[in-house]
Amino acid sequence: MNEFRRHWHHSLLLALCCLLMSCIENSDQKAQQVDVNSGDKKPRIALIMKSLANDFFSSMAEGAKKHQQQQGDEYELIVNGIKDERDLSRQVALVEEMVANGVDAIVIAPADSKALVPALRRAREAGVVVVNIDNKLDQEILEAEKISIPFVGPDNQAGAKKVGDFLASKLKSGDEVVVLEGIRTSFNGTQRRLGFEAAMQDAGIKIVDSQSAQWEMSMANTLALSMLSEHRNVKAILAANDSMALGALAAVKNNNKTGEVAIVGFDNIAAVQQAIRDGQILATADQHGGELAVFGIEHALRLIEDPDAKVEDRETPVDLITAEVLK
Length: 327
What we know:
alpha/beta, 12 strands, 12 helices, 6-stranded parallel sheet, D-allose-binding periplasmic protein, 2 domains, Rossmann fold
């Protein structure tokens, strides 16, 4: 009986040792797997834009995708957009979806300078890096929400002033013009209007009407038709983006005023480049949409790599585009 007990204890001890060694081996394998995965993990960056129906934002998306493909081992990219420029609730929902999806950074061109700030604050609180491009977030709202978000983009007022100055060089003091504004709660829309106004004031040119077409071509066409009907002596239309410039162009053609009413825009989309070459639109501003998202993504990658880095804005180029430039 004692011999049986000794044999049983020996077998049990051997089984326990084997089990313990197996657990240790599995634990080591898991630890190695964690180390490998953590070393290979790529940052995930979400690009959230405004309407992808707008050529400016579709070119921005293509520029970002091309950059990611060229830097494929560096980060993963998720591209999102909204149906139209005014779909604020959907853009807020996209921010929340990307946070829930566990992205490391959000690079956003906000549809509104104020309405997106609370959602972006929540993203920051969740540990997500946020970089603002294209349309600057409202500084007072940022301060009220107690967050700092870097802006990467052009000086929209300076860009609009360049366009306005070029237009003024083709007009004379006392001429009348009208302005098609962007969304009035958008910082870039306000800045472009101010740039246009400064250029016209400097040249002694009178703005007889200024209304928001909310960045939309069809609304711009309707407003421009009304403006041309009400103000018979208008010599030019200043549009705060190229989609609205194209809407204005259709209105000018409809009124048989091609060559009589000059048009300027902002964004340098392909359709407007062709209209400039054809002499139908006078000028636009190029804020390098194909590169703008890339500038924001590169800024986000730096902040992911160094979370303690100082949060700073970065100004990007904006250039006057005329027929001479496009030759």
